[in-house]
Structure to design on (311 residues):
């Protein structure tokens, strides 16, 4: 069927037979249409039924290789990110430790000199019954250093922080030394914290190599402003959290930033102990047992004549 047009512009439907447009196959009288080669092409690319399992296995192997490559790439990125993190923490830690001020330098030198003298002195511990040197007792060592700093003119005190338990951290308390200074030109109060066992406070038994490297950077005795101490606490607590996450272990609540911050930077009002207060030794009246009395001298009425016993 076709469409024809006359000279006067009218359109008429024309019937066109298909014999003139159809092509006859050379090997038969079956007409060949356009659809024959198209469907023949799809039949050629179809996978035979007996080869479908092999094709599915090929797709599965391809998916597995793609997943492995993706996992390897993610692991590589994770390793590089972890390496960059620990390098950055190491740089921040060293930069914070190296910074100092004039008041920090003076207090640090005075404290080191006091520790050097106490290590070779024969001063005995006062709070224990056993005779031990003062350097073996943390409480006595802290008190002796505080007294020496006070004698040098520093406003030093033994501070005791105490905090209650919450949903995040347990309760606890901590004792340390603190020097308060107002000699700067601005008249602002500067607090210098002295912690005699600073490195031990951050040590962990199952830490990785990167965290232990940061621990080795910390001083055994910390002497610095409270602001500088706050930066160190933040760096070490962040590193502890990262370390436990890499080892897929639980971080104890006493390792968290809020708990460590409460030790030195928490509320310590009305908890300052005057360094001049020393434990008073009560002179107790010697107690005597009844076995130490001479009954014959103190109780003369108890003298009796000897009685001869005859068997």
């Amino acid at each position: 069927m076709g469409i024809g047009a006359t000279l006067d512009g009218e359109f008429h439907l024309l019937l066109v037979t298909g014999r003139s447009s159809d092509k006859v196959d050379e090997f038969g009288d079956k007409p060949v249409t356009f659809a024959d080669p198209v469907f023949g092409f799809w039949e050629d690319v179809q996978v035979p039924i007996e080869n479908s399992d092999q094709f599915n296995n090929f797709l599965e192997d391809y998916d597995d290789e793609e997943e492995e490559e993706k996992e390897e790439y993610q692991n590589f990125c994770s390793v590089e990110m972890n390496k960059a993190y620990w390098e950055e923490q190491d740089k921040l830690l060293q930069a914070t430790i190296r910074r100092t001020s004039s008041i920090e330098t003076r207090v640090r030198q005075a404290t080191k000199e006091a520790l050097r003298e106490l290590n070779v002195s024969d001063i005995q511990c006062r709070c224990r019954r056993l005779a031990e040197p003062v350097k073996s007792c943390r409480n006595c060592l802290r008190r002796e250093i505080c007294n020496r700093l006070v004698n040098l003119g520093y406003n030093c005190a033994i501070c005791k922080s105490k905090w209650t338990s919450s949903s995040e951290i347990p309760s606890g308390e901590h004792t340390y030394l603190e020097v308060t200074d107002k000699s700067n030109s601005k008249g602002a109060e500067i607090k210098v914290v002295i912690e005699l066992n600073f490195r031990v406070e951050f040590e962990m038994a199952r830490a990785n190599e990167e965290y232990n490297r940061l621990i080795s950077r910390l001083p055994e005795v910390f002497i610095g402003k409270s602001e500088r101490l706050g930066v160190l606490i933040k760096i070490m607590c962040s590193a502890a959290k990262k370390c436990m996450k890499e080892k897929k272990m639980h971080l104890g609540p006493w390792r968290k930033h809020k708990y460590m911050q409460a030790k030195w930077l928490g509320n310590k009002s009305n908890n300052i102990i005057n360094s001049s207060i020393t434990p008073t030794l009560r002179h107790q009246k010697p107690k005597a047992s009844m076995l130490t009395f001479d009954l014959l001298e103190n109780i003369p009425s108890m003298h009796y004549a000897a009685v001869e016993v005859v068997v």
